[in-house]
């Protein structure tokens, strides 16, 4: 299906993509805020390396629950109600973390925040992919990654700004999340429902009304034909067991593999444990928090580069470049950290930039594209659950490994994983740029 750029209401597409992607901003907030808060939480609640890892991983455990909720909720009631619930959970968890009086209350509140993150991490890119036309889908889905990194950068800047406001500075850090949460909730109220979900539910007139806002009559006719053809070709109804059917499991397996690799590639230990890593080479607390700001800036700049290239260079080349480059950069970082050299900051910043341009946004784009329409909600849920379980394991084990074997040792492990990731991407992943979601149905079915 070829779609003419002139037939599309680009302003409307960009507006609804940005509002949906505010879930990504809150994802970035909850993801990044722990890096600034950890030095204070260690003192407030006497965290050892196990509690440090568990407090960080509790977000991911909540994400798993959020993905289960989002998968069932979005297929039964629509993508929009799921986004609204995610926004509400973000709001109440931000306040609960800010006012928590014990370690357990803080971790429980962070777990609830994770439920919101899990729902948004699944539903925001899924929603955008289902609304955006094929020729701009990569850039529109990448907006979700852009808002994630903006959330990370702004959170790191706020953390650094208020670092000297006393031992309760961490309460302000986590409490600020209530402001964007409220804005996200208001924005979601304005969003239309996904036309693909509406058609799946037999609500044809509502789907046509949404599509008419997106594009011309020709675009509406082409899109309706493609979606209905895809839905009519399938007799599989939504359930989690349906994703393991022989016809669709090749696509599901690739989605799970991409999700697991994006986490086990190791970059998120740099985001979440910046202070721990740089403390190991002699950086002061002030300099540790300053590094989080540099990381946020690099992350944003290279995500913008990814948005420019994802629909030009393509998904697969970017993933290959990212996996090989990270392997090299991790080996250099490990050697410098092992020798307690402050120069380790440079290859780690380069690794952040490379991830932001490749594996970070492109993995989410691919996960939003490769699953057939009739199982997209369930399959996306399983892939993202795999991602968050991998993240939980990654961030729980890093403080323990760093304490027992040195902060440098995990980076050698991550380098090896990146080499395996290169092999997986090169042999199993197919290019998706410029193809409609319906055209991709057969591409990842083992054909």
Features:
20 helices, 447 residues, 0% strand, mainly alpha, Growth Hormone, Chain: A
Describe this structure in words.
The chain is mainly α and 447 residues long. The chain has one domain: Growth Hormone, Chain: A (Up-down Bundle). It is 77% helix and 0% strand. It is built from 20 helices and no strands. It has helices at 10-20, 22-45, 49-77, 79-98, 103-131, 134-161, 169-175, 178-190, 195-200, 204-214, 217-232, 249-264, 267-272, 274-279, 285-309, 315-338, 345-357, 359-369, 376-405, 409-428. Helix 2 packs antiparallel against helix 5 and helix 4 (79-98) packs antiparallel against helix 8. It is globular, with a radius of gyration of 21 Å.
The total strand number stands at 0
What's the domain count?
1
Low-confidence stretches: none
- CATH fold field value: Growth Hormone, Chain: A
Distance between the termini: 19 Å
Q: Report mean pLDDT, rounded to a whole number.
A: 86
Q: What is the beta-strand fraction? A: under 5%
Alpha plus pi helix count:
20
Task: Label the structural class.
Answer: mainly alpha
Shape, principal axes of CA atoms: globular
Helix content range: over 70%
Radius of gyration: 21 Å
Largest sheet: none
- Fourth-level CATH superfamily: MFS general substrate transporter like domains
H-E order: HHHHHHHHHHHHHHHHHHHH
Q: Mind telling me the CATH class?
A: Mainly Alpha
Name of the CATH architecture? Up-down Bundle
